[in-house]
Amino acid sequence: MSNTAQLSARERITSLLDDNSFVEVGAYVTKRSTDFNLEQKEIPNDGVITGYGLIDGNPVYVFSQDASSLGGSVGEMHAKKITRLYDLALKVGAPVIGLIDSTGMRLQEATDALNGFGEIYLKQVMASGVIPQITAIFGNCGGGLALMASLSDFSFIEGNNARLFLQTPNSLQGNHKQKLDTSGADFNAKSGTVDYVGSSELDVLNKIRELITLLPSNNEEAGNVIECSDDLNRILPNFSAELEDTKYAIIDISDNNYFYEVKSEYAKEIVTGFIRLNGITIGAIANRTKVLDDNGQVIDQFDPTLTTEGCKKAAGFVRFCDAFDIPILTLTNVTGYKADINEEKTMAKAAAELTYAFADATVPKVNLIIGKAYGSAYISMNSKHIGADYVFALPNAELGMMDAKLAAQIIYDGESAETINQKSEEYASLQNGALSAAKRGYVDNIIEAETVRKHLVYAFEMLYLKSEARPVRKHGSF
Known about the structure:
Helices cover 33% and strands 20% of the residues. By secondary structure, the chain is an alpha/beta fold.
């Protein structure tokens, strides 16, 4: 339950929305059950406040659970208020934002409460890919509520008092909360369950407001565009120095150096988030080999390989962008897959998931090869071979099956070191260079690092009205 230092359910709504824009819906709806003396209990709003309002002028629907009203527990009518909100949001094509603070299922209503959870899940699935769904967690979000949060497109959590768990830490075999708090914000951020951890409730609410301004209201609305005040031909003199921690490369490319990162604590070898190019919202994905702090010191380091978690992180982001017609940019530097026993158990399926997501996406897709691009891992990273519209490469980029020296050692096994070195240079020239790939049509242009921004701006401008037909089907089976 919320403590006195936290905002009330209604205060969260008013802090989230534009001033004086909230209109409540279903204010008088309350429980019907009278079992276990419920008729003697007053449950204002049945534990959830629902309605609509504006965020920076954009219509949104919002529900906020009230932990001071029977713990914000989910019963029959509580759930019906939420599903009613989804019905309205789907009719008008507006996002749904859920503010979670609840003890969970209302035990006094048992099967009715279970039915309510199921009806909410069904609405969330029906809304998936149609309207954006955003969840923010401010108190308890356990059991069935954890599924609600995970069925959303984006989940936010307040870092001090919020708890997200399918099962409590003490119920996990061999664990207890003091050993590892699996319900805490830090654990859920590192596991990829949430997209952002806020330092306060207001921080979370402001971050949601910012996200809403980046996204279309529904899957039929044209992409989000604002007026660009940045120089479209701006030169990037430091771009070559930013290719290890590609978060900074992405920031450098974007209009006014704007970047909205998602899942920053999960699978850090892949960077995902939203930028703007000429005012257009673009989904950006990049391989990363180093993580730098604000002082430029290395705090984490990775091989240029794909991991299971990295593939899943990128694939989910691609699917969201494709569903809402958000163009995709990738910065590619990958030599293969992470090689260890645990990764081998899951890597093939995860790499297939990433490949499928890029190949299935019909939005504008642009790939910039900033380093090495080897083997099937490169193919999975939005290559032209699986449907990228434009592929650019920096002059020193390498594309091919594998490292040139390793290829020469395999081809000329048993030959002298001198021969292998000579053939390695020959292989690099004939097969691994950006120029050789460009001659075969696998790279559209080789561009200088400082000119990257203007090339990407113009590429996405040319692709803005892209339309791509696909075979008629119910949905893919992957």
